[in-house]
Amino acid sequence: MDKFPLCEFCAKRFGKAPIAMAKRPKCHVCNELMGEAERLAKSALADSSLFEWSAFSVSSSFPKAVFIREEEVAGFLGPGNYSSLKNAANSLLASIISKASGRKNAPRKADAVFEFDFANSKSRAYPSSIYVFGHYLKFSRSHCQSRWHCSGCHGKGCASCGGSGKNYPSIEDELGKAIGGAFLAKEWTLHASGREDVDVRTLGTGRPFVLELRLPLKRSVNLSSVELALSSNPSVIAVGLKTVGKHFLDAVCNSHFEKEYSALISADRPLTKSDAKKIGSLAGKTISQQTPKRVLSRRTDMERKRKIFSIRASEAEGGKLRIHVLAEAGTYIKELIHSDEGRTSPSISALLSCKAACDELDVVSIHDYFLETISD
User: Fold this and answer.
1) d(CA 161, CA 155)
2) Is 3 inside a domain boundary?
3) What is the pTM of this model?
4) Backbone torsion region of residue 13, taken as left when φ is above 0, otherwise alpha when ψ lies between -120 and 50, otherwise beta
C-alpha cells in the first residue's frame, strides 16, 4: 500500500501519513480532484443565495476510474478500516457549507440540495420541492383537472384552441398560478385523489390534493393569504392549505374514498314520484360496470363490481328527478344512470324501462376523513 501516493485527504481516509505535494505525483486515488472541494462549495453557495433555505443535503459524483483505484488501495486493508471517498467527500463538503452558511446538514429536512460533480468540475445548489396539501372546490363545468394540451397543436397554440394551446382551462393551472406563484415556483404538478369529468362540479368540503412545487424560490409563505386570494376565483378555490411531506402523495393518490353525488336526471318520458321510489331499490345493491366506452381509449376494458350504499330520488321541475347517491370509490355515476348500452347493470335506465340521461352531476362529499390522521 505504501507504493501508492496519496493526497492529505485520501491518506487520512486510509489511516496513512500524507506525502508532501512537492515530493509526490498526483494522488493515486482521487487524482487531486478533492483539491477542488473548496472552490466547488463556494460556487454552489453562490447559487443558494438566490432562494430561501434553512437546511441542506449534499451529494457527490466522481469518475468511475476513481472508485477502481480506491478498491485497489482498499485491498490492502480489512473491511471497515477506511472511509469511502463519497462519504468522506460529502462530510467535508457539508462541513464547508455549514461553516459558511451557519445552517445544518439535514438530509431528511433539506430545503436546499447541493450537488457536486467532480468528474466535470461542476457544482450547483437548488431548492427542494415543496408539497402543499388541501382540498379544491370546482364550481365550473368547463375545467379539466390536469393540463390538457390541444390535440391539434399539441400546446403550441392554434385557431382551434384560440391560441391557448389547451382544450380546456385546468384546475392544475388555477391552483398553480395562485399557490405556485406565491412560492415563486418554476413549475408545478397537481396530484389528486381521483378526478371529476370536465362538466362535473366538486362541492362540499372538496377533493383532496397535493400540489408539487418544483424549484421554489420562496418558502415562507402565508397560505391563509393564498386561500383568501383564491376565494375570489369563480371557477376553482382551495381550502385547508398546508405544507406537507412527500409521503402525502401516496396517501392522497393511492387511497380510495366513498363519494356522495347529486345528479339531475331526465328521460325520454316524464319521470314521476313512482320512478323516484323505484330508484330507491338500488340502495345496498352491487352493480357490475364494464369500462365505459367514453374512457376505453385510456382505461383497460374490464368488469368492475361497485356497491351503491344509498340512493334516493325526488321530483324536480320539467318531469326530471334529482338523485343523491353514496357509492363505492370508482363508481361511474353517469353510466349508473344511462347504462352505457347495457355495460352497467343494473342501471336506472333499465330499472325504469326508459332512456335516462344525466343532465348535471356534482360531487358533494368525499369521505377522506382518515387523511386528517396522517402526520405532517
Assistant:
1) 9
2) no
3) 0.90
4) alpha
